[in-house]
Each structure stands twice: as structure tokens, then as C-alpha cells.
Amino acid sequence: MPAVAELVGKLFSGEDSVREILTWCSLLIFSISIFRRLRQWYRLSHIPGPPLAGFSRLIWLAPQGMSGQYTAWMRDIDRKYGRLVRVGPKTVVTSDWRLWKRIMSARSPWTKSDRYTGFRLDPQRDHIVSTLDEREHTRLRSIMQHGYSGKEVEGIEEKLDAEVLSFIRLLETRYIAHNKPFDFARKVQYFTTDAIAHLAFGEPFGFLETDSDVYNYIAIIEKTMPAMGFFTNFPGLFRVLRLPVLNRLLPKATDKEGMGKLMGLAKETAAERFGPDRKVQKDMLGSFIARGLTQPEAETQIVLQVVAGSDTSATTIRSAMLNIATNPLILRKVQAEIDSVAPFPKDKVVDDATTRNLPYIAALIRESLRWLQPAMDMSPKKAPPEGDEWNGYRLPGGTEVGWNAICVMRDPELWGDDAEQFRPERWLEAASDPSKLCDMEYVVELNFGGGSRFQCLGRTVALMEIRKVIFELFRRYEFVVMNAGKPWTSIEWNMVEQHEFWLKAYPRENSPSML
Ligand code: HEM
């Protein structure tokens, strides 16, 4: 320290030799940094993209991640620069589904990019999505896949049925019975969050029962979306957040609301399952623990389960609702298919096996996922050290390639000239061309991550929940969109959010009312 003080003293007293050394040092550091940036820029300079994007993530990636207009940006760069676009110093986005398929395939040497660290819910700890350690990821997947698939678990369907009925009861008693409109965007979020909480915690949070955002959870998550958009571009910032002075600002398990409250509930739930008086249950968590998940891991994975499984499913249900309620041709086919297997008693929910055999509803759900991608983040993967090549473009080792979800899902080469239109029939028509149907099915599945390494673990549960709720809503009611000119407002971060989707519902003739 005295040496530093002496140096500073000499500097201010104007000793030329010290000032000169410092000036040269600064120039050297500056030149090295410029050289490194130029080298980085040069490595991918053969790939087209917005000017200056190759110099810093701050120029393109960060502002776009926080703009809330992700799809408009993605469509724009695809139109201007083509199927392979450089959007950051080492980041490229592709709308070529064949390249994305190759990257995501089971034996691909591509791995998760450091952007995944930005998905941490707790800066101190990784969960299955945020971990970059391949072996750790494989270990967690092998522990959890049995519970998620429902094989070792009792009561998944019963718990989902209870929440579907709770949802119907809420709509009917508070709105339909009083001829009042409701914001379907918000109510369906209550449903998906309670449904996933019921699976993860053993009971719902109570959104549906109270018709409110209990613990202010949704409001707080929505507020943190832009920050998440930023952190995914600068994952190194998580190291800064671990500093004690900033750590105090982060959610804590002792909080009374928001993510902290969720962390607290997860801690309590996990604690009940470990220790001498532990509760042994044959539910999802029970299966994870039986296969080796530790207590701290259980705390983190429960929280992730709720975050990963609520908004994603809600978006798919909204996409289906909007397109059925505004298109009489689709509505008639949905109702006819439901009526062909109904009636069930009013207090029963259709069973999963029945909904799996409804081809039009299956096509409708695929189309809903294609039309609006619930998790539209580019999710870049990192090229292996030896690099890769695609269509004559060299992708040097360490290059991150992400996908342009909206452009893949609207690619006219795959989906035809009517790619922009919501048309479930395209799936039924494609049955006559098995190779085309196979490509379409593969590509729409990319919404769930794809491949054996990156595929969503909650896919089976999500589809069961979505099929059931669509069936039950359209079995019982006719829906009217209140503001047909602008049915909802949509904000797109890494995830897409819809708000203000106002509907009115009327009981269908001869439909089973809950009242
Ligand atoms: C329509 C609904 C859903 C969609 C579109 C969806 C999408 C995705 C995607 C794209 C990934 C991969 C992330 C990546 O590695 O890049 C993923 C992973 C995951 N999802 Fe889902 N998800 C949905 C519903 C659910 C539900 C309901 C649950 C929980 C029950 C869930 C739990 C998970 C988990 C645990 C992972 C981590 C898998 C891993 O990293 O190995 N998801 N999901």
C-alpha cells in the first residue's frame, strides 16, 4: 500500500517518468483490448449481420433482449440478412431448421452456451437448465426423467383434474353467472401456476380459489423479465451479484412475496421430505428423491419446475383460445370432436386417454405451438473446439448459434405459402406425405427443446394439461372476444407474455354447468 501511495503522490506531484509509464501502460491495455475485439470480429466477419454487432453484446443483443419486441427483431434480421445472421461478437442466429436440428441432435458435439447461466433463479446455485456442466446435466436428467414422465408417480392426472375443475368453477361462479367479462390471459396463468404448484408442492398456491395473484408472484416475475433478458446476455454479472453488498437485494427464502416466497415454500417442502421424520410420497418430488436428488437440489428444482411450467403452458392455451374463438370453422370442428366423445358428468374432467385419441385437437395444439412459440429465446449452443461448417460457412470453435424460433415456425419452405395462417388442417393433410409430416412434427417439437439432451422434461405433463383444459372449456362454453381489433397485448422477452385478453363466456346448449 505505501508503494501505491508513493506512486500516486509522484503522479500528482507531476513526476514525468511515472506519468509516462502509466500512459504507456494504459495505451498497451487499450491496444490489447482493441486487438482482441478486432480478432473476435474478424473470426465471424464472413457472416452477415447488423453493422457493429460483432464488436460488443451491448450494441445489439442487450438492447434487443430488453426491448420486449423479440419476434419483430428476429423477423427483421431474417429478412435483411438471411438464414445465418451474426448478432453478437461470437453469437449467430439461424432460421434454418436443418442446422438447428443438427446442433440439437443426440450425438451433436455442440453444448450449452454461457447464456444459460443467465437463467439462474438464484445467483449462487445452478438448476438443471442453467448448468453448463454436461455431466451434471446428464445426472440431473437421469434422476428426474422418471418422475416427469409420470411412470413412478401417483396422482398426476387427479391433481391436474382438480385444477381444471377449480378453473371452471372460478370462471363460472365469478364471471359467467354474472354475465361479466374476464381477462383470460391472467386467469389461465392462475390455472397453469396452480396446476404446476399442485404437482410440485402437493397443493395449489390458491390463485384460482382467491382469484388473485397470491404472494404477488406473477407481478414480480413479470417485472424481472427485462432484467432476465439482460442477464442472459451478460451471465458474468452473476459473479457481481454474489458480492455481499448486492446479495442483500436478491430474493430470499424469508421474503413474504414474489420469487423469495416461492423459494421459502420450496425449502419447507423439501425439508419435510428429508431427515428422520421425513414424509415419503409417491409424487414427482418423491421420485426425484428416491433416485438421489439431494435436499438443496430439491429446493432449486421445485422452484424451476414452477417457473418452467407455468407461463409456457399458459401461452399455448391462449394461442389455442384466440384462434378457436375467432374462427368459426375451427370452432365447429373442435366442438364436433368433443361432442363425439362427451357427455361426461359435470363434475368430471375428461381422462387423458380419451383426449389422446382426438386428431383434430392434437392438430390444433401443434398448430398453437407453431403459431406462437412459448419459449422463444434463441437458446444458443456452443460449437466444439474444432468448430463446424454449414452451407459453406465456417463456424469456428466457441461460436454460439441460437435459433430464430418465429422464422423457423413460419418458414414457407416447410409450412407452405399459408405459413402465417393458423390452420390445424395442415397437420391432417400432411398425413398423406409421411416424410413431410415427419419434418413438420420434428420442427414443432423444437418448441420443447428437441433432441434427447435438451428436451423439456415437462412435455408430457404440459400436453396432458393443455388437452384437458381445451376440451373442458369448449365442452362447456362459447367464448366471445371482447376486443376483436386488438384481442391482447403481447410482450416478448425470452418468454412471451400476453395481457388484457378479455373474453366473455356463455354456457353451451345442453352443456354441463358447474352451478
Ligand atoms: C407448452 C409448455 C412448455 C414448453 C413449450 C416448454 C419448453 C421448454 C424448453 C424449450 C426447454 C429446453 C430449454 C433448453 O435447454 O434450452 C424446456 C426445459 C425444461 N422444461 Fe419445459 N416447457 C413447457 C412446459 C413445462 C412444464 C409444464 C414443466 C414442468 C412440469 C417443464 C419443465 C421443464 C424442465 C425441468 C426443463 C429442463 C430440462 C433440461 O434442462 O434437461 N416444462 N422446456
Automatic annotation (TrEMBL):
Keywords: Heme, Iron, Metal-binding. InterPro entries: Cyt_P450, Cyt_P450_E_grp-I, Cyt_P450_sf, Cytochrome_P450_monoxygenase. SUPFAM superfamilies: Cytochrome P450. Pfam families: p450. This is Cytochrome P450. It comes from Humicola insolens (Soft-rot fungus).
